[in-house]
Specification:
The chain is mainly alpha-helical and about 450 residues long. It is built from 22 helices and 5 strands. It has a domain of about 100 residues. The N terminus is likely disordered.
Amino acid sequence: MLARIIGSLNFAGLMFISLVGAPGLPGFFQILNPPSALQGTPESSAPGVHGDLSETMPDQKTEKSGLRSLSDKIKDWRTAAAQHNPGKPDAAAKMIGGWQESDIKSVIDYVSKQASQPANSAKRTPAKAQTRRLLDLSEQEAKQGDFSRIIKQGVLLHTDIALLNLDTAVHQYSRGGMGLFADGGVITIQPQTLQWEYARQLIDLIASSRSGDPVARQWYIGTTAYMQSRRLLGYAAQNLKSAVEKFPSHYTILFYAGALHESWASPENQNHLLLPGSKITYGSKESELRLARHFFEKSIAGNPDLAEVHMRLGRVLGLLGFHLQSISELQKAAVLLKDPQLLYYTVLFLGCEFEILFRKDEARDQYEHAATLFPAAQSPLFALSRLSAGSDDAKGALDAVQRVFALQVIDFRNDDPWWAYDLSHIRNADALVVEMYKMLGGSPQ
């Protein structure tokens, strides 16, 4: 039954839940206060304190004897950010990736405080020799209160630590852990990386200035596309929460937000077992579908010619029971689409909607169209079999299934694009990440 196939797409990914326990989903999730039996090695005591950022000069506030001062951490971080080769797992990135949360947070908070001061104040503060020396500001940057070079280097550094999996520090579980599960069971729980959070804190300093909006927007688009392409849905949710706040009308960001909620509504993310006391942080199927519809409609309002968004909106409307509206959106998409893979999805969904409305001839035409677009695909043939079975046409149902057995399967996941529907909107993720590097002034290796 195609309706069941379409409703059962696997959106395995990185999930977030609160309290205690873990959902029985194939992928990762966040858990707060995980049971001690599931935790990895606890974090050793982080050296020193965050430092008192209310002090005028950070090195006026030193830590316990034998431990690095905040000013030393700032200088080490600034040197690593300047020496880091974007896109490479070099020594600078590995070093910062090994820092404890308290060390990195103290530095990021200091940089954020200095860079977020009002313009007049910022111009005075960097002029002080101590702060200028700590952040390695040029004379011109100091005079103008311009922290953009330092901030961009920091964004690239922490983005790469996350992208290249260089976060090797042992973290506490106070922020929650990342649980790996499969077939309904928890395999292990690991601390979540905070590198994305550090990069977001820095990129938001750029987003606060009008001239920096395109750079910050591309960072959010590129990193969110990366997260969704790797099914890191929990990290994508964190990213999109901030992105929608910063860029509430940008159609790509709204599209990605809609796709995330469409994923949360899938059976794999809804039909799970929770341990006692656990709670997922996303909503029910219906609430997530409504959110997906909301974001897709806002995206289309910003750019009415987005064929893929019309296609996804049509699917969501159908799942919500608005079948005539679904057909209207899907037909709009079919007219606009040139991409065979996206057209394949569109005609499958149209077939499903026509089948639900008992317009069986039209449904059959759409399924046959899908089979023509991808001759090795199984989904349209199973849909034709189900359609025939629903009409008490046993021979037609059997004939369609026999067509499946006759297929020459080379790579079943690539032969049928249906397996990759949840990734279809970010097939250009790598190119978007490269563009992000370029706009931040880096040349990724």
